[in-house]
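Researcher: I'm preparing a figure for a lab meeting and need a structural model of a single chain. I don't have an experimental structure, so a prediction will have to do for now. The sequence is pasted below. Please return the structure as tokens so I can convert it later.
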Amino acid sequence: MTKRIFAPITTSMEEKNEIITEHLRNFAALSDKDINESLTFWKPRKIEKGGFFNMQSMVCNDLGLVVKGIFRIYYSDPKTEKEKNLFFFSENQFVVSFRSFISQNPCWYYIEAMEDSEIVFISYKDLNSLYEKNPNWGKFGRLLAELFFSYAQTRTEEFMFFSHEQRFLRLLEEHPNIIQRIPAYHISSFLGITNPSLSRIRKRIGR
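Model: Understood. Here is the structure written out token by token.
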């Protein structure tokens, strides 16, 4: 599996800057001065449905912010080729294989666009240069690490303490229209259940 599709960019420079500015203000309370220092580093990219933000066994060198679309992070067993969905990321969420990004070691997972998608992204090198120059960007890095630690721990705890139905409802809270956007079998894989089980849950809760 080697497909990695990049398409022409539709997000203008002005729109890109507005999206980044709003998100960074909300996420890390960065000032306009802080944000302006970073704007030249953020680049727009369009990834077609079925294309990849990052590939298994490759180092994840970029941190993305989803402008439009939805991505799945999944593991593909090299022996069986069976896929397991681990996370979904959609609009206004950062997308990255965080362990690979911070360690600069190969990623265990694929990050695939489930729809025609648009992101803005910053490289590991450029983000670290901001960390070194500006303590406010160091705060951003801490908040980013806390966010992805929270994602990982929440995912583990949901499998330990929540029923299949509760996990499904939590998914709908985070991605309200995900049922209309991706095939049901991807949701079943994420929940760790079969398609018939997901159908029964949806019928029971009327979703």
